[in-house]
What does this fold into?
Amino acid sequence: MYKIFLYDGTFEGFMCAAFHIISEGIDKDRAIIVSKNEYQPMFIDSVREVQNDFKTFLEMRKGIIEKADSSVFKKIYYAFLSDTKDKEGYILRYLFFVFEHGKKIKYLYSDDIVNAVEKMAKNVSREIGKYMGLMRFCETDKGFLYAKFEPKNDIIKPIAYFFKNRLNEFYWAIHDVKRNKVAIYDRKKVQFLTCDNLKLKVTHQDEMFQMLWKNYFKAVAIEERKNLKLQQQNMPKRYWKYLLEKN
Amino acid sequence: MDVLEKLEVLGAAAKYDVSCASSGSKREKHFGIGSTFSAGICHSWTDDGRCISLLKILFTNECIFDCAYCINRKSNDIKRATFTPQEVAELTINFYKRNYIEGLFLSSAIKNSPDWTMEMLYKTIWLLRYKYQFNGYIHVKAIPYASLDLIRKTGFLADRMSVNIELPSEKSLRLLCPNKTKESILKPMEFITKVAEEEKNFVSAGQSTQMIIGATDDSDYKIINLSQHLYKKFKLKRVYYSAYTPVNHDPRILKVESPPLLREHRLYQADWLIRVYNFSADELFNGKDENLDLEVDPKVMWALRNLDKFPIEINKASYEELIRVPGIGIKSARRIIKNRVFHSLDFEDLKKMGVVLKRAKYFITCNGKTFERFLIDLEPEKIKQKLTDKNSLQRPQQLSFFDREVFTSVITGEI
It folds into this structure.
């Protein structure tokens, strides 16, 4: 029989669930953390819903940073954003390791759990890195910049904070079309909302710059060095859907 | 001529400039539009697979010089165009805020005079920094023969500056660029190094240069030796190599069918070895061959010529020894050192840590054991054959091997 811990789907909520399991000494092989939306009830399980309590979350974070360091905490956060199935299971076991081994966890390459979490985190961080460059904003008739994307992992938060720093002088919105999430920036702070459909029109001026960019993109390729395979390797097809120069 | 047409002409004219790095800036930022990112960001990849990070354009392609290899030389009958500083600034800002680019790479042909040209570059960047309060990355060329005062003023506004060394020897320069002298290139280079050492916020991402490969008969040894001096003496951040694309038919240029891409790649690898792995040019070539081996990477080439230094014991070797093993890069060496503290490592551990054994296995032992029996006694020729054989067996796939390993390693520096 498993002990099921339901959480609200957020990183903070997940950490609270993990906190209860670790602090109450529950056997990690008997505990399962599942997002409320994804749980399908089984009557033999004992189910407990965990409240998302920010203080508990902060306590967990502090514990991880003290025991290991902030890079390990960041790794856990990135792994949580991954679209890997049962990421909660991997990260929970990883957390047990953190409290057992501390900093050393960074060099336990031979462990499967550690390897899996490393891989998830790396995949997320790579996708964030790609979208930092491949996001394309357009100017809308409502006077703000707008970009849409369909990331594999749920990375809208770190992406939005990157652009908060970069496009700090503009009003903008970033839209994860796959998950119906929007990040909106009003030159002060970023807000995260859900939304289905945005009706926006691109300005005439923006169309001109789109054309300029597409032409420039064509003009700078060197015919004698043509290598579409290498291009696709650096910029896989799944990024092309909203990429001006590839459409 | 409208901006669209100018951008096409002056973007195409700048495509042979190699550098597109946007990393390493330490310029202080107070307010304004945008930011730099220390690791650099690529915003797209062209059909030839090269990354686009910066809006790379010439200010003008009208030139009073007549260099044999250059598409923009005076004697060529091509479409000419010149931007205004305002046009470049507006393009940059508008591309930047749409996240098309990381910043501007501004180069130029020499129109009217070197000083006139440099003045225009300065004005453009001044507009960007002060009128538009642009904080993104700017790489600008220092024009040979321009006044040092102008170069100095420009350097305080830029993240990176570069003077193209163009060709690896004075003889080649005299042959192909009758208008440029060694002096006209090295003087501004030396000046930028000096000011950067004395002043804060002057080209904080450093200085780079580039040279053309394959248009002259200069050997790889000569090229790498020159680069080594440039790194040491002028503290350059990068030397870029550009396989010559035959754009002009000129009897002074060596006949090139297509750009020597593999040679270019081997030079980048050798460059990494002297810049990051502490090799010296003399060590790499050790008087034997003036050119790099195209069949194997330069680290393998070196190791095969120095088999007496191998095998290296993974559990005892120093960091410096480890990074000299073919197939073991900076990252793997660090992992090995951090991991062997806990327990002694065998080949399985190495695999799990992500150390690629394909090349390394011929040069290492784990606790005295080799990867397979009799592996180490092999003659250099036999090892080389084994390493290159596999590639020829997979002929149809060779291109993909070439692409992946070859070109990404230029970026990551793992050899």
